[in-house]
Amino acid sequence: LRRIQMKDRGFTDQIKGKVKKTFGDLTDNEKMQAEGILDQTIGKTKEMAADIQDAAEEVIEKAKEKFHKDG
């Protein structure tokens, strides 16, 4: 559940960042452009962290299954 929330927040941050960057582009506001890029990067990082955690838990679960099967 926590990973899903992290992934959802990551997606939300990416959308928020795209909106900020677009608004900054339209108004020539460099600060808003930079904030938008930062928000997009943070969002992508949150999504990647959730994906890495999913993969790590899958590896751990497979290792446990193998250990119990062989042990």
Shape by Cα distribution: rod-shaped
Mean pLDDT across the residues is 92
Specify the biggest β-sheet. none
Radius of gyration: 18 Å
Order of SSEs:
HH
- Helix percentage range: over 70%
Write up this protein.
The chain is mostly helical. The chain is built from 2 helices and no strands. Helix 1 packs antiparallel against helix 2. The longest helix is centred in the C-terminal third of the chain and has 41 residues. It is rod-shaped and about 65 Å long. The two termini are 31 Å apart. The mean pLDDT is 92.
Q: Keywords for this structure?
A:
2 helices; 0% strand; 71 residues; mainly alpha
Topology:
Blueprint: H1 2-27, H2 30-70
Short description:
94% of the residues lie in helices and 0% in strands.
